[in-house]
Design goal:
With about 130 residues, this protein is an all-alpha fold. About 85% of the residues lie in helices and about 0% in strands. The protein has helices at about 5-65, 70-120.
């Protein structure tokens, strides 16, 4: 009986510690998912804003030099493509970083669980004489 009380307390502490790790890892995953969503939204906003500014510049250039309208249209389309590609690359990099954070949280949680399971002693029943 005296041996089981400390072991029970140790097991309860290990479970509580594991629960804290799960909550922390879940919080990290939740926050990183929110960050992914925010990056995706901001990427779309940036693309739209850039396209609008490019269109405004294109129209202004056409008004200033009507003879160069075809060249201005071509340059504007290339600028839009480059802007969208850059925004997509930025979003992909952010998504990759968030995925790495989530993986690190999961690995840390697994490592903590493994450490707690290796520290917690196994209880074997005493043989009945």
């Amino acid at each position: 009986m005296k041996k089981t009380i400390p072991l029970t307390i140790l097991a309860a502490a290990a479970l509580a510690f594991a629960a804290c790790d799960n909550k922390t890892a879940d919080t990290i995953k939740e926050k990183s998912d929110e960050a992914k969503e925010a990056v995706a939204a901001k990427t779309e906003e940036a693309k739209d804003a850039a396209a609008k500014k490019i269109d405004e510049a294109k129209d202004a250039a056409k008004d200033a030099a009507p003879a160069a309208a075809a060249a201005v249209d071509s340059m504007a389309e290339k600028a839009k493509d480059a802007t969208q590609n850059a925004a997509d690359a930025t979003k992909d990099a952010a998504d990759s970083a968030v995925d790495k954070v989530q993986d690190a949280a999961t690995n840390a949680m697994d490592t903590a669980k493994d450490a707690m399971s290796s520290v917690a002693p196994t209880i074997t029943p005493a043989p009945n004489p």
